[in-house]
Amino acid sequence: MWKKIIRTLTLRNVYLGNRFFWLFGSIAALFIISFPFSLLFAVAKTALVFASALLLVDFFLLFNKGVNVDCERILPRKLSLGDDNTVNLKLFNRYGLGLDICIIDELPVEFQKRDFQIVDFLKAGQQKTYPYTLRPVLRGEYTFYNVNLYVNSRLGLVQRRITHRLKESILVYPSIMQMNRFSLMAVAKISTMKGVKKVRKVGSSYEFAQIRNYVKGDDYRSINWKATSRKNSLMVNQYEDERSQQIYSVIDKGRSMQMPFNGMSLLDYAINSSLVISGVSLKKHDKAGLMTFSDKVGSTVKAESGPKQLNLIIETLYKENPRNFEANYELLYTATKQFIRRRSLIFLYTNFESFSAMQRVLPLLRRINASHLLVVVFFENTEIVDYSHNEAHTTEEIYNKTIASRFVEEKYRIVQELRQYGIQAILTRPENLSVNSVNKYLEMKSRGMI
Length: 450
Prior knowledge:
This protein is α/β, with parallel strands linked by helices and about 450 residues long. About 40% of the residues lie in helices and about 25% in strands. The chain has 4 domains: about 1-60; about 70-175, Immunoglobulins (Immunoglobulin-like, Sandwich), CATH 2.60.40.10; about 205-240, no CATH class; about 245-445, von Willebrand factor, type A domain (Rossmann fold). A hairpin with a 5-residue loop joins strand 9 (about 145-150) and strand 10 (about 160-165).
Protein backbone atom coordinates (compact mmCIF):
# COMPACT_ATOMS: atom_id res chain seq x y z
CA MET A 1 0.00 0.00 0.00
CA TRP A 2 2.74 2.46 0.98
CA LYS A 3 4.69 1.57 -2.16
CA LYS A 4 1.63 2.29 -4.30
CA ILE A 5 1.03 5.67 -2.63
CA ILE A 6 4.67 6.71 -2.88
CA ARG A 7 4.86 5.63 -6.54
CA THR A 8 1.70 7.60 -7.40
CA LEU A 9 2.84 10.73 -5.59
CA THR A 10 6.35 10.58 -7.04
CA LEU A 11 5.24 10.20 -10.62
CA ARG A 12 2.38 12.66 -10.67
CA ASN A 13 2.37 15.14 -7.84
CA VAL A 14 5.84 15.41 -6.27
CA TYR A 15 8.36 17.99 -7.45
CA LEU A 16 11.71 18.84 -5.90
CA GLY A 17 12.28 22.46 -4.96
CA ASN A 18 15.43 24.55 -5.43
CA ARG A 19 16.24 24.28 -1.76
CA PHE A 20 16.43 20.46 -2.10
CA PHE A 21 19.15 20.73 -4.74
CA TRP A 22 21.05 23.41 -2.82
CA LEU A 23 20.93 21.41 0.42
CA PHE A 24 21.83 17.98 -0.94
CA GLY A 25 24.28 19.47 -3.44
CA SER A 26 26.12 21.08 -0.54
CA ILE A 27 26.15 17.79 1.36
CA ALA A 28 27.54 16.00 -1.72
CA ALA A 29 30.26 18.63 -1.97
CA LEU A 30 31.01 18.11 1.72
CA PHE A 31 31.46 14.36 1.13
CA ILE A 32 33.86 15.10 -1.72
CA ILE A 33 35.91 17.45 0.45
CA SER A 34 35.99 14.81 3.23
CA PHE A 35 38.25 12.54 1.13
CA PRO A 36 41.40 14.62 1.80
CA PHE A 37 40.02 15.87 5.12
CA SER A 38 38.70 12.78 6.94
CA LEU A 39 37.46 14.82 9.92
CA LEU A 40 34.70 16.26 7.71
CA PHE A 41 33.30 12.80 6.90
CA ALA A 42 31.40 12.58 10.21
CA VAL A 43 30.04 16.09 9.67
CA ALA A 44 28.86 15.15 6.17
CA LYS A 45 27.07 12.04 7.46
CA THR A 46 25.38 14.02 10.23
CA ALA A 47 24.26 16.65 7.71
CA LEU A 48 22.89 13.94 5.42
CA VAL A 49 20.84 12.41 8.25
CA PHE A 50 19.54 15.83 9.29
CA ALA A 51 18.64 16.77 5.68
CA SER A 52 16.89 13.44 5.13
CA ALA A 53 14.86 13.99 8.30
CA LEU A 54 13.85 17.47 7.06
CA LEU A 55 12.88 15.94 3.71
CA LEU A 56 10.64 13.38 5.40
CA VAL A 57 9.04 16.06 7.58
CA ASP A 58 8.41 18.25 4.55
CA PHE A 59 7.02 15.28 2.66
CA PHE A 60 4.49 14.41 5.38
CA LEU A 61 3.54 18.07 5.87
CA LEU A 62 2.50 18.25 2.23
CA PHE A 63 1.06 14.79 1.59
CA ASN A 64 -1.13 14.10 4.60
CA LYS A 65 -4.92 13.99 4.37
CA GLY A 66 -5.34 17.41 5.96
CA VAL A 67 -3.80 19.28 3.04
CA ASN A 68 -6.73 20.75 1.10
CA VAL A 69 -6.80 23.91 -1.00
CA ASP A 70 -10.12 24.61 -2.69
CA CYS A 71 -10.13 26.46 -6.00
CA GLU A 72 -12.91 28.04 -8.03
CA ARG A 73 -12.60 29.84 -11.37
CA ILE A 74 -15.17 32.63 -11.83
CA LEU A 75 -15.77 33.60 -15.46
CA PRO A 76 -18.09 36.23 -16.90
CA ARG A 77 -21.10 34.92 -18.84
CA LYS A 78 -19.44 35.97 -22.10
CA LEU A 79 -16.07 37.40 -23.05
CA SER A 80 -15.95 40.67 -25.01
CA LEU A 81 -13.86 40.78 -28.16
CA GLY A 82 -10.89 43.16 -27.97
CA ASP A 83 -11.52 44.17 -24.34
CA ASP A 84 -9.75 43.34 -21.09
CA ASN A 85 -12.00 40.73 -19.48
CA THR A 86 -11.50 39.93 -15.81
CA VAL A 87 -11.25 36.32 -14.62
CA ASN A 88 -11.12 35.51 -10.91
CA LEU A 89 -9.49 32.53 -9.20
CA LYS A 90 -10.87 32.00 -5.70
CA LEU A 91 -8.68 29.92 -3.34
CA PHE A 92 -9.37 28.69 0.21
CA ASN A 93 -6.61 27.09 2.29
CA ARG A 94 -8.32 24.58 4.59
CA TYR A 95 -4.99 23.28 5.92
CA GLY A 96 -3.78 24.13 9.41
CA LEU A 97 -0.48 25.55 8.13
CA GLY A 98 0.37 28.37 5.76
CA LEU A 99 1.45 27.36 2.26
CA ASP A 100 3.53 28.97 -0.45
CA ILE A 101 1.53 28.57 -3.63
CA CYS A 102 2.10 28.92 -7.36
CA ILE A 103 -1.07 29.02 -9.47
CA ILE A 104 -0.99 27.98 -13.12
CA ASP A 105 -4.28 28.25 -14.97
CA GLU A 106 -4.46 26.29 -18.24
CA LEU A 107 -5.75 29.09 -20.48
CA PRO A 108 -7.41 28.58 -23.88
CA VAL A 109 -4.90 27.94 -26.66
CA GLU A 110 -6.19 31.02 -28.54
CA PHE A 111 -4.36 33.31 -26.11
CA GLN A 112 -0.99 31.61 -26.70
CA LYS A 113 0.00 32.63 -23.19
CA ARG A 114 2.45 30.06 -21.85
CA ASP A 115 4.06 32.01 -19.00
CA PHE A 116 0.98 32.54 -16.83
CA GLN A 117 1.52 32.06 -13.12
CA ILE A 118 0.55 33.70 -9.82
CA VAL A 119 2.81 33.26 -6.78
CA ASP A 120 1.61 34.04 -3.25
CA PHE A 121 1.48 32.81 0.37
CA LEU A 122 -1.82 31.56 1.81
CA LYS A 123 -2.18 31.59 5.58
CA ALA A 124 -3.97 28.77 7.39
CA GLY A 125 -7.73 29.09 6.82
CA GLN A 126 -7.27 32.08 4.49
CA GLN A 127 -9.55 32.69 1.53
CA LYS A 128 -8.28 34.92 -1.28
CA THR A 129 -9.32 35.94 -4.80
CA TYR A 130 -6.79 36.44 -7.58
CA PRO A 131 -8.05 38.49 -10.54
CA TYR A 132 -6.33 38.59 -13.93
CA THR A 133 -7.32 39.95 -17.34
CA LEU A 134 -7.50 38.39 -20.78
CA ARG A 135 -7.95 40.13 -24.14
CA PRO A 136 -9.43 37.84 -26.80
CA VAL A 137 -8.89 38.90 -30.42
CA LEU A 138 -10.96 36.22 -32.15
CA ARG A 139 -14.66 35.43 -31.88
CA GLY A 140 -15.69 31.87 -31.09
CA GLU A 141 -15.67 29.27 -28.34
CA TYR A 142 -12.75 29.26 -25.89
CA THR A 143 -12.03 26.36 -23.52
CA PHE A 144 -10.39 26.73 -20.12
CA TYR A 145 -8.81 23.59 -18.71
CA ASN A 146 -7.36 22.60 -15.31
CA VAL A 147 -6.05 24.86 -12.57
CA ASN A 148 -2.76 23.53 -11.17
CA LEU A 149 -1.68 24.57 -7.69
CA TYR A 150 1.97 23.97 -6.77
CA VAL A 151 2.18 24.19 -2.98
CA ASN A 152 5.09 23.87 -0.59
CA SER A 153 5.67 24.44 3.11
CA ARG A 154 8.12 26.91 4.57
CA LEU A 155 10.84 24.25 4.34
CA GLY A 156 10.58 24.39 0.56
CA LEU A 157 12.33 21.07 -0.14
CA VAL A 158 9.37 19.38 -1.81
CA GLN A 159 6.56 20.80 -3.90
CA ARG A 160 3.16 19.20 -4.35
CA ARG A 161 0.88 19.65 -7.33
CA ILE A 162 -2.85 19.82 -6.66
CA THR A 163 -4.90 19.69 -9.85
CA HIS A 164 -8.45 21.02 -9.96
CA ARG A 165 -10.29 19.80 -13.03
CA LEU A 166 -12.23 22.92 -13.99
CA LYS A 167 -12.67 22.43 -17.72
CA GLU A 168 -15.29 24.82 -19.06
CA SER A 169 -16.06 26.63 -22.30
CA ILE A 170 -17.07 30.23 -22.86
CA LEU A 171 -18.08 32.18 -25.95
CA VAL A 172 -16.28 35.32 -27.13
CA TYR A 173 -18.86 37.76 -28.51
CA PRO A 174 -18.47 41.16 -30.15
CA SER A 175 -17.58 43.76 -27.56
CA ILE A 176 -20.56 43.91 -25.20
CA MET A 177 -18.43 45.97 -22.79
CA GLN A 178 -17.94 48.72 -25.37
CA MET A 179 -21.61 48.66 -26.25
CA ASN A 180 -22.67 49.11 -22.61
CA ARG A 181 -20.14 51.90 -22.06
CA PHE A 182 -21.19 53.92 -25.10
CA SER A 183 -24.90 53.29 -24.52
CA LEU A 184 -24.62 54.89 -21.09
CA MET A 185 -22.81 57.82 -22.70
CA ALA A 186 -25.56 58.28 -25.28
CA VAL A 187 -28.31 58.86 -22.72
CA ALA A 188 -26.20 61.11 -20.47
CA LYS A 189 -26.74 64.87 -20.56
CA ILE A 190 -23.01 65.59 -20.46
CA SER A 191 -20.38 63.06 -21.42
CA THR A 192 -17.08 62.86 -19.56
CA MET A 193 -15.65 60.14 -21.76
CA LYS A 194 -12.41 60.86 -23.52
CA GLY A 195 -12.90 61.37 -27.24
CA VAL A 196 -16.65 61.88 -27.10
CA LYS A 197 -17.83 65.34 -28.05
CA LYS A 198 -20.94 67.17 -26.98
CA VAL A 199 -22.52 68.43 -30.20
CA ARG A 200 -24.35 71.74 -30.44
CA LYS A 201 -27.79 71.51 -32.02
CA VAL A 202 -28.19 73.61 -35.13
CA GLY A 203 -31.42 72.12 -36.43
CA SER A 204 -34.81 71.50 -34.88
CA SER A 205 -36.98 68.48 -34.15
CA TYR A 206 -40.72 68.34 -34.25
CA GLU A 207 -41.66 65.62 -31.78
CA PHE A 208 -43.50 67.39 -28.96
CA ALA A 209 -42.30 66.77 -25.41
CA GLN A 210 -43.85 69.36 -23.04
CA ILE A 211 -44.76 72.99 -22.39
CA ARG A 212 -42.50 74.90 -20.00
CA ASN A 213 -41.74 78.45 -18.89
CA TYR A 214 -39.81 80.66 -21.26
CA VAL A 215 -36.10 81.05 -20.44
CA LYS A 216 -33.91 83.75 -21.91
CA GLY A 217 -32.29 82.37 -25.03
CA ASP A 218 -35.20 80.14 -26.10
CA ASP A 219 -36.33 80.38 -29.71
CA TYR A 220 -39.22 82.86 -29.81
CA ARG A 221 -40.77 80.85 -32.65
CA SER A 222 -41.55 78.06 -30.15
CA ILE A 223 -43.71 80.32 -27.91
CA ASN A 224 -47.11 78.77 -27.22
CA TRP A 225 -49.43 81.81 -27.28
CA LYS A 226 -52.51 79.98 -25.98
CA ALA A 227 -50.63 78.65 -22.94
CA THR A 228 -49.08 82.11 -22.48
CA SER A 229 -52.50 83.77 -22.34
CA ARG A 230 -53.79 81.24 -19.79
CA LYS A 231 -50.74 81.46 -17.52
CA ASN A 232 -50.16 85.18 -18.05
CA SER A 233 -46.46 84.43 -18.60
CA LEU A 234 -44.43 83.35 -21.56
CA MET A 235 -44.64 79.60 -22.23
CA VAL A 236 -42.77 77.65 -24.90
CA ASN A 237 -43.15 74.29 -26.55
CA GLN A 238 -40.27 71.92 -25.92
CA TYR A 239 -39.42 69.33 -28.55
CA GLU A 240 -37.20 66.28 -28.44
CA ASP A 241 -35.25 64.32 -31.01
CA GLU A 242 -37.34 62.51 -33.54
CA ARG A 243 -37.49 58.82 -32.87
CA SER A 244 -37.94 55.59 -34.78
CA GLN A 245 -35.41 56.45 -37.46
CA GLN A 246 -33.67 53.53 -39.15
CA ILE A 247 -29.95 53.07 -38.50
CA TYR A 248 -28.22 50.37 -40.53
CA SER A 249 -24.70 49.01 -40.12
CA VAL A 250 -23.45 47.59 -43.41
CA ILE A 251 -20.19 45.64 -43.11
CA ASP A 252 -17.84 44.71 -45.91
CA LYS A 253 -16.40 41.31 -44.94
CA GLY A 254 -14.29 40.89 -48.07
CA ARG A 255 -10.55 40.51 -48.48
CA SER A 256 -9.67 44.13 -47.69
CA MET A 257 -11.15 43.83 -44.18
CA GLN A 258 -8.82 41.03 -43.09
CA MET A 259 -5.83 43.28 -42.36
CA PRO A 260 -4.73 42.84 -38.72
CA PHE A 261 -4.07 45.67 -36.28
CA ASN A 262 -3.18 44.98 -32.63
CA GLY A 263 -4.10 41.34 -33.13
CA MET A 264 -7.62 42.03 -34.44
CA SER A 265 -8.79 42.20 -38.04
CA LEU A 266 -10.53 45.27 -39.45
CA LEU A 267 -13.65 43.14 -39.76
CA ASP A 268 -13.71 42.54 -36.01
CA TYR A 269 -13.23 46.25 -35.33
CA ALA A 270 -16.17 46.94 -37.65
CA ILE A 271 -18.27 44.27 -35.91
CA ASN A 272 -17.56 45.82 -32.51
CA SER A 273 -18.44 49.29 -33.79
CA SER A 274 -21.65 48.02 -35.41
CA LEU A 275 -22.74 46.57 -32.09
CA VAL A 276 -21.95 49.86 -30.35
CA ILE A 277 -23.93 51.89 -32.91
CA SER A 278 -26.85 49.47 -32.63
CA GLY A 279 -26.87 49.72 -28.84
CA VAL A 280 -26.66 53.51 -28.86
CA SER A 281 -29.37 53.93 -31.51
CA LEU A 282 -31.74 51.65 -29.59
CA LYS A 283 -31.10 53.69 -26.45
CA LYS A 284 -31.99 56.80 -28.48
CA HIS A 285 -35.27 55.07 -29.49
CA ASP A 286 -34.22 54.55 -33.09
CA LYS A 287 -34.43 51.31 -35.04
CA ALA A 288 -31.22 49.33 -35.54
CA GLY A 289 -30.53 47.02 -38.47
CA LEU A 290 -27.63 45.12 -40.00
CA MET A 291 -26.35 43.89 -43.35
CA THR A 292 -23.10 42.18 -44.35
CA PHE A 293 -21.75 41.59 -47.84
CA SER A 294 -18.71 40.56 -49.86
CA ASP A 295 -19.03 38.72 -53.17
CA LYS A 296 -22.56 37.94 -52.04
CA VAL A 297 -25.02 39.29 -49.52
CA GLY A 298 -24.47 37.79 -46.08
CA SER A 299 -26.62 38.21 -42.99
CA THR A 300 -29.43 40.74 -42.83
CA VAL A 301 -31.37 42.01 -39.83
CA LYS A 302 -34.30 44.30 -40.55
CA ALA A 303 -34.26 47.54 -38.54
CA GLU A 304 -36.51 47.24 -35.50
CA SER A 305 -36.58 48.63 -31.98
CA GLY A 306 -38.08 45.75 -30.03
CA PRO A 307 -36.58 44.33 -26.82
CA LYS A 308 -35.11 41.31 -28.64
CA GLN A 309 -33.48 43.30 -31.43
CA LEU A 310 -30.12 43.80 -29.73
CA ASN A 311 -29.75 40.10 -28.90
CA LEU A 312 -30.59 39.24 -32.51
CA ILE A 313 -27.86 41.62 -33.76
CA ILE A 314 -25.32 40.23 -31.26
CA GLU A 315 -25.98 36.64 -32.32
CA THR A 316 -25.80 37.59 -36.01
CA LEU A 317 -22.50 39.44 -35.61
CA TYR A 318 -21.04 36.56 -33.59
CA LYS A 319 -21.51 34.17 -36.51
CA GLU A 320 -19.96 36.40 -39.20
CA ASN A 321 -16.78 35.17 -40.89
CA PRO A 322 -14.52 36.86 -43.46
CA ARG A 323 -14.49 35.85 -47.12
CA ASN A 324 -11.48 35.83 -49.43
CA PHE A 325 -13.22 37.72 -52.22
CA GLU A 326 -13.46 41.33 -53.32
CA ALA A 327 -16.56 43.22 -52.23
CA ASN A 328 -19.30 43.46 -54.87
CA TYR A 329 -20.73 47.00 -54.62
CA GLU A 330 -23.17 46.44 -57.49
CA LEU A 331 -24.71 43.70 -55.37
CA LEU A 332 -24.69 46.01 -52.35
CA TYR A 333 -26.60 48.70 -54.26
CA THR A 334 -29.22 46.17 -55.39
CA ALA A 335 -29.52 44.72 -51.87
CA THR A 336 -30.02 48.13 -50.23
CA LYS A 337 -32.67 49.02 -52.80
CA GLN A 338 -34.59 45.82 -52.11
CA PHE A 339 -33.96 45.41 -48.38
CA ILE A 340 -33.86 49.01 -47.07
CA ARG A 341 -36.97 50.62 -48.56
CA ARG A 342 -37.28 53.56 -46.17
CA ARG A 343 -34.73 56.39 -46.07
CA SER A 344 -32.16 55.41 -43.44
CA LEU A 345 -28.80 56.32 -41.98
CA ILE A 346 -26.31 53.75 -43.28
CA PHE A 347 -22.86 53.24 -41.76
CA LEU A 348 -20.82 51.44 -44.41
CA TYR A 349 -17.71 49.83 -42.87
CA THR A 350 -15.16 49.14 -45.58
CA ASN A 351 -11.54 49.87 -46.46
CA PHE A 352 -10.05 51.71 -49.43
CA GLU A 353 -6.30 51.36 -49.81
CA SER A 354 -6.08 53.61 -52.88
CA PHE A 355 -7.91 56.49 -54.52
CA SER A 356 -8.52 54.44 -57.66
CA ALA A 357 -10.22 51.69 -55.61
CA MET A 358 -12.66 54.27 -54.25
CA GLN A 359 -13.28 55.80 -57.68
CA ARG A 360 -14.38 52.44 -59.09
CA VAL A 361 -17.26 52.23 -56.60
CA LEU A 362 -18.01 55.96 -56.25
CA PRO A 363 -20.94 55.95 -58.75
CA LEU A 364 -22.63 53.20 -56.73
CA LEU A 365 -21.99 55.01 -53.45
CA ARG A 366 -23.58 58.14 -54.93
CA ARG A 367 -26.67 56.15 -55.92
CA ILE A 368 -27.00 54.74 -52.40
CA ASN A 369 -26.52 58.21 -50.94
CA ALA A 370 -29.30 59.56 -53.16
CA SER A 371 -31.81 57.26 -51.44
CA HIS A 372 -30.29 57.19 -47.98
CA LEU A 373 -27.90 59.12 -45.76
CA LEU A 374 -24.61 57.28 -46.28
CA VAL A 375 -21.59 57.39 -43.97
CA VAL A 376 -18.53 55.63 -45.38
CA VAL A 377 -16.21 54.47 -42.60
CA PHE A 378 -12.73 53.33 -43.56
CA PHE A 379 -9.38 52.96 -41.85
CA GLU A 380 -6.00 54.56 -41.57
CA ASN A 381 -3.07 52.22 -41.95
CA THR A 382 -1.59 53.01 -38.55
CA GLU A 383 1.80 51.48 -39.30
CA ILE A 384 2.24 53.61 -42.42
CA VAL A 385 1.02 56.74 -40.62
CA ASP A 386 3.44 56.19 -37.74
CA TYR A 387 6.28 55.48 -40.17
CA SER A 388 5.57 58.69 -42.10
CA HIS A 389 6.13 60.67 -38.88
CA ASN A 390 9.57 59.18 -38.23
CA GLU A 391 12.72 61.14 -38.98
CA ALA A 392 14.62 60.05 -42.10
CA HIS A 393 18.42 60.04 -42.16
CA THR A 394 19.48 57.88 -45.10
CA THR A 395 18.45 58.02 -48.74
CA GLU A 396 16.50 54.78 -48.37
CA GLU A 397 14.64 56.10 -45.32
CA ILE A 398 13.79 59.34 -47.17
CA TYR A 399 12.42 57.33 -50.10
CA ASN A 400 10.35 55.07 -47.85
CA LYS A 401 9.00 58.01 -45.86
CA THR A 402 8.00 59.79 -49.09
CA ILE A 403 6.06 56.73 -50.27
CA ALA A 404 4.39 56.40 -46.86
CA SER A 405 3.39 60.08 -46.89
CA ARG A 406 1.83 59.61 -50.34
CA PHE A 407 -0.29 56.73 -49.02
CA VAL A 408 -1.44 58.87 -46.09
CA GLU A 409 -2.30 61.83 -48.35
CA GLU A 410 -4.25 59.52 -50.66
CA LYS A 411 -6.48 58.50 -47.77
CA TYR A 412 -7.33 62.14 -47.04
CA ARG A 413 -7.93 62.69 -50.74
CA ILE A 414 -10.53 59.92 -50.61
CA VAL A 415 -12.31 61.72 -47.75
CA GLN A 416 -12.38 64.99 -49.71
CA GLU A 417 -13.69 63.28 -52.84
CA LEU A 418 -16.52 61.58 -50.95
CA ARG A 419 -17.53 64.80 -49.20
CA GLN A 420 -17.47 66.66 -52.50
CA TYR A 421 -20.37 64.45 -53.63
CA GLY A 422 -22.28 64.86 -50.36
CA ILE A 423 -21.24 61.52 -48.86
CA GLN A 424 -20.28 61.62 -45.19
CA ALA A 425 -16.90 60.01 -44.49
CA ILE A 426 -14.96 58.89 -41.43
CA LEU A 427 -11.26 58.12 -41.68
CA THR A 428 -10.15 56.63 -38.39
CA ARG A 429 -7.56 54.54 -36.64
CA PRO A 430 -8.99 51.08 -35.86
CA GLU A 431 -8.83 51.59 -32.10
CA ASN A 432 -10.82 54.86 -32.38
CA LEU A 433 -13.50 53.45 -34.66
CA SER A 434 -16.32 53.12 -32.12
CA VAL A 435 -15.95 56.56 -30.56
CA ASN A 436 -15.71 58.28 -33.96
CA SER A 437 -18.76 56.42 -35.26
CA VAL A 438 -20.83 57.31 -32.20
CA ASN A 439 -19.74 60.95 -32.48
CA LYS A 440 -20.87 61.03 -36.10
CA TYR A 441 -24.23 59.43 -35.25
CA LEU A 442 -24.93 61.87 -32.41
CA GLU A 443 -23.80 64.81 -34.55
CA MET A 444 -26.05 63.92 -37.46
CA LYS A 445 -28.99 63.20 -35.17
CA SER A 446 -28.61 66.47 -33.29
CA ARG A 447 -28.50 68.42 -36.55
CA GLY A 448 -31.70 66.84 -37.76
CA MET A 449 -30.00 65.25 -40.79
CA ILE A 450 -31.88 61.98 -40.31
